[in-house]
Amino acid sequence: MDLSQYVKSISHAANTILEGMAVTFSHLFREPITVQYPDKLDRPMSELLPARYRGFLEVQMDICTGCKRCEKSCPIDCIAIDLVKDPVAKKQTMGRFDIDMGKCMYCGLCVEACKHESTGAIRHTREFEAASASLDHLTFRFIPEGTLVPLYKAPKDLSEVPVGQYGPHAREARERAMRDNPARLKELRTFWAAERAAKIDATPEAKPAKT
Ligand code: SF4
Ligand code: SF4
User: Fold this and answer.
1) Total domains present in the chain
2) Whose CA is nearest to atom 4 of ligand 2?
3) Which listed residue, 25, 67, 173, 209, has the most CB atoms within 10 A of its CB?
4) Is residue 87 part of a domain?
5) CA nearest neighbour of 71 among 57, 85, 84
6) What is the reported pTM?
């Protein structure tokens, strides 16, 4: 290689490095397209999701008849319901209602079965944050261990079935699943409290009136 070729190669390498650095530095002055999740969002994430988003399942136990239609309709056996006879009241009760959200494919078949043939006690929430150290923490337990829940007797006119608040049942069930991981549970509670506070701040009546 003669000297002129040698100098040409060095100059080419230097130009290439400078071009690359120019592209890199130009990003320092551009508006970022991505956002830091979740602390840079101006609204709770659940409000930014599409209207028909299917998140964690929840069961409103006070309107669950224990009919097991949801359990039977699940193609991959995520739902486990145990019916137990209360020895004192001599009545059928529920001793377990677990949903394995780690296995669930969010198909919604259980929700459809309950909505069309029963009381609509099971439904999807808009919650989705499931990162956890153990798959066991994703088995949501809607009945606390050792408790027997009476079966709901649905009225003939199903439009009279009360509809509860959307979301807290899944949170409670998840808390029960995570009782052996207090550190993660504390983090989740802090996150839920912040999310609730953000929702209260966003309601029109929470804003100071204009004078
Ligand atoms: S009422 Fe709904 S949630 Fe309860 S067992 Fe029947 S189908 Fe499942
Ligand atoms: S959403 Fe589908 S997979 Fe999940 S529990 Fe219901 S029926 Fe089973």
Assistant:
1) 1
2) 104
3) 173
4) yes
5) 57
6) 0.73
Report the b/e string of 104-121 with b at 16+ CB within 10 A: beeebebbebbbeebbbb
The CATH number of the domain holding residue 182 is: 3.30.70.20
Per-residue pLDDT, 210:
40
Q: Kindly state whether residue 40 falls inside one of the protein's structural domains.
A: no
When mean pLDDT is compared over 14-23, 133-142, 196-205, the highest value belongs to 14-23
What distance in Å separates the CA atoms of residue 87 and residue 146, rounded to the nearest whole number? 14
CB 74 less than 6 A from any atom of ligand 1? no
- Return the best residue to mutate from 68, 70, 74, 115 for the ligand 2 pocket (most ligand atoms within 8 A of CB): 74
Distance 114 CA to ligand 2 centre (A): 12
What sign does the dihedral 40-42-43-49 (CA atoms) show?
Answer: negative
| Mean pLDDT for all residues in the chain | 86
